């Protein structure tokens, strides 16, 4: 597949094509309030941190994009990364921006490949481009709160066990973690509360088609861990763990 990769800062006319590219996120993920409040701001306010891959030729189709944000992690202490991974990265990045705090690292936020282009190695190419982009801006590290893409097949396996599971060749069991490690990343830790979606039972039923009528842990397609359901109280809560990966540049 012949592609060209650019940033939205270089090609602002591509904003609608990038923001409107099809994806495969589960519906409940789209209803994380922190994500809803901040994710869309990245392309508008930090276009130099939004990369996209486009087919060659006039009017080439956008087939992948990579979002990242600069932020300050120095106050976490040596080697520390926030337990509220993905949500905190978004909140902190825009809080730092508002307060004029100088960033010291770049965090990946998402790498998304259009459904019809998946399985072609594009995710690895976008990760490499994200690393190159951060290096070109003078950063010496990229961190990533990774959502392991096969973990949903084992929702009741503890992330602490899953994240560090390896194959016979020593590479991670999970395909997306494997891409990061092959690119030079190091699995650092689990972010136990990386994303939180709390909503009424009615909303969960609409998003998933499941009854949500019994107390306890409910397995939901696409969820990395079960959703905690409280029918007597009328709500359910999903707290997603992610895996921190550190990329030295």
Structure overview:
27% of the residues lie in helices and 29% in strands. The chain is built from seven helices and nine strands; from the N terminus they run βααββαβαβααβαβββ. The relative contact order is 0.16. Strands 1, 2, 3, 4, 5, 6, 7, 8 and 9 form a nine-stranded mixed β-sheet that branches. It has 249 residues and is α+β, with helices and mostly antiparallel strands. It has one domain: Gcn5-related N-acetyltransferase (GNAT) (Aminopeptidase, 3-Layer(aba) Sandwich).
Question: Could you outline the blueprint of secondary structure elements for this entry?
Answer:
Elements (H helix, E strand, L loop, with lengths): L2 E5 L7 H5 L13 H13 L4 E6 L6 E10 L13 H15 L5 E9 L8 H15 L4 E6 L12 H4 L12 H8 L3 E15 H8 L7 E3 L8 E4 L4 E14 L1
Parallel strand pairs: 4-5
Antiparallel strand pairs: 1-2, 2-3, 3-4, 5-9, 6-9, 7-8, 8-9
Helix pairs in contact: 2-3
């Amino acid at each position: 597949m012949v592609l060209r990769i650019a940033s939205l800062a270089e090609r602002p006319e591509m904003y609608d094509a990038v923001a409107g590219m099809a994806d495969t996120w589960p519906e409940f993920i789209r209803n994380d309030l922190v994500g809803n409040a901040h994710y869309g701001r990245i392309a508008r306010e930090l276009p130099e941190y939004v990369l996209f891959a486009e087919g060659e030729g006039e009017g080439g189709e956008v087939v992948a994009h990579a979002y990242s944000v600069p932020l300050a992690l120095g106050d976490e202490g040596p080697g520390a990364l926030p337990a509220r991974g993905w949500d905190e990265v978004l909140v902190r990045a825009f809080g730092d921006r508002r307060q004029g705090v100088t960033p010291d690292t770049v965090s990946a936020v998402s790498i998304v490949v259009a459904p019809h282009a998946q399985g072609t190695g594009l995710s690895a190419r976008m990760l490499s481009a994200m690393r190159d982009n951060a290096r070109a801006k003078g950063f010496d590290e990229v961190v990533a709160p990774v959502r392991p893409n096969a973990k949903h097949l084992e929702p009741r396996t503890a992330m602490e066990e899953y994240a560090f599971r390896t194959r016979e060749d020593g590479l991670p069991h999970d395909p997306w973690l494997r891409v990061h490690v092959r690119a030079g990343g190091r699995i650092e830790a689990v972010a136990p509360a990386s994303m939180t979606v709390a909503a009424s039972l009615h909303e969960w039923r609409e998003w998933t088609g499941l009854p949500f009528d019994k107390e306890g842990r409910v397995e939901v397609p696409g969820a990395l861990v079960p959703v905690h359901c409280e029918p007597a109280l009328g709500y359910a809560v999903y707290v997603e763990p992610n895996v921190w990966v550190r990329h030295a540049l």
